[in-house]
Amino acid sequence: MNRNLGLNFLSNRKRDVSPQARQETVTEQRYKEIKNKLNIIKTSGQEFYNVSIDDMEYVRNLGSGAFGQVTQQKFKKTKELMAVKCMHRSGDEEEEKRIITDCFVILDTHTHPNIVNCYGIITHENSVYICMEVMPTCLHDLIHENLKSGIEEIYVGKLIVGILDGLIYLKSKNYMHRDVKPSNMLINYDGVIKLCDFGITGQLIDSKIISNGKGCLLYLAPERIESVTTYDSRSDVWSLGITIYEMVKGMHPYGDENTGFELLARIKEGPAPYLKENEASDELRQFVGRCLEKNVEKRAKYKELEEHPLIQTFRGRHVDVASWIQELLVDF
């Protein structure tokens, strides 16, 4: 049994100073920091050591994605329910990097209220299990299963505040999510929205990203399609703008494209999506417009968005998102 998360691809590698090598050095440093934190579960005010997957009891399947399957499991020692993301290791170099990145970033950021909470990480043979809090839904399912005509602006505004706070916190830790989209935004019964899935999160070096990990094409910023060597968190700002558009309209602005080629061509060459006057308030339309500026040099940075009147209004406004969510998810 191998209960260690290794870095086989780092052995026998010559050191150089290329952007790729710098990113690999970051990955190696991350591994060194997390290896002593594995197989420890922190919950209910206690720490449990040498935890194995046998300490979990399967309850039900919660879903799966490109990077792993998520199940609901009961931690036998406390009877607490957890969402457990299982990632199988095949030995592929990029896969190893992604798994280590996912583990490192969530351990480093999960205490923020808008980042999904992590209880710990378990390794077993060739699998890695990230144990997280159970969240009843994600923003994607909320939109496309419950609110196909879009979300009321009063709730959109409050949710944007939470998403933005999570992204700004990642930036303060020198991270860029790089896969900002509704399916990576979870919502709990208290109405709190939280970012998740950090497998392709990039390390900001001098405020720039030097690696080329791609997120979902539907949310990809124009400059990332153009294969720009370096880019910054304004690419995530574009993805935030697309997400807000989807929240308001109940549909994706590029959802009718049939092929990846058509989609990329439209993002790169076509006009930026926008909200019409009858679809949102002036403040919300202006906010989305600042996010969906095709010229990255003119696009808003987080500081501008944080100071935008829309954010200032909803940050200080009481909105009962909890009751709204609970009513929508009454059958969960």
From TrEMBL:
<keyword id="KW-0547">Nucleotide-binding</keyword>
<dbReference type="InterPro" id="IPR000719">
    <property type="entry name" value="Prot_kinase_dom"/>
</dbReference>
<dbReference type="GO" id="GO:0051403">
    <property type="term" value="P:stress-activated MAPK cascade"/>
</dbReference>
<keyword id="KW-0067">ATP-binding</keyword>
<dbReference type="GO" id="GO:0004708">
    <property type="term" value="F:MAP kinase kinase activity"/>
</dbReference>
<comment type="similarity">
    <text>Belongs to the protein kinase superfamily. STE Ser/Thr protein kinase family. MAP kinase kinase subfamily.</text>
</comment>
<dbReference type="InterPro" id="IPR008271">
    <property type="entry name" value="Ser/Thr_kinase_AS"/>
</dbReference>
<keyword id="KW-0723">Serine/threonine-protein kinase</keyword>
<keyword id="KW-0808">Transferase</keyword>
<protein>
    <recommendedName>
        <fullName>mitogen-activated protein kinase kinase</fullName>
        <ecNumber>2.7.12.2</ecNumber>
    </recommendedName>
</protein>
<keyword id="KW-0418">Kinase</keyword>
<dbReference type="GO" id="GO:0004674">
    <property type="term" value="F:protein serine/threonine kinase activity"/>
</dbReference>
<dbReference type="InterPro" id="IPR011009">
    <property type="entry name" value="Kinase-like_dom_sf"/>
</dbReference>
<dbReference type="GO" id="GO:0005524">
    <property type="term" value="F:ATP binding"/>
</dbReference>
<dbReference type="Pfam" id="PF00069">
    <property type="entry name" value="Pkinase"/>
</dbReference>
<feature type="domain" description="Protein kinase">
    <location>
        <begin position="56"/>
        <end position="311"/>
    </location>
</feature>
